[in-house]
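Workshop exercise sheet. Pairs work together: one partner reads the sequence aloud, the other fills in the structure field after running the prediction. Swap roles for the next sheet.
Pair: D.N. / O.F.
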Amino acid sequence: MPNGKVWEHWRRGEALALLDASIGDSYAQNEVIRCVQVGLLCVEEDVSRRPIMASVVYMLNSNSVIVPTPHRPAFFRSNRSESRVEEVGVDQSNTERILTQSSVNEASITELYPR
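Structure field:
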């Protein structure tokens, strides 16, 4: 599941909605919430706030440790996509305008071709 959906469920206090229905009632709610919370800490926007692996293991194995509240994930994408108009030159006398989708994080995509 994309982390944007997980973040939205977390923000609305609906972390349990992320569970597969086939699990039924065979889970501990506090453990599910803790796992989602730790997972969101691992994908935070600010890399310095992400826990190291030893901390992740400790947070998941200890009920006595207080897990920090996560902030927005690094690659969060809301339900609405940003669009922009881009001019594409078809030939010298004709310029075509097309609507393109772009991610909020302005990441570039490189196409790889086989050798």
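Discussion prompt: The chain has a mean pLDDT of 76. What would you look at next?
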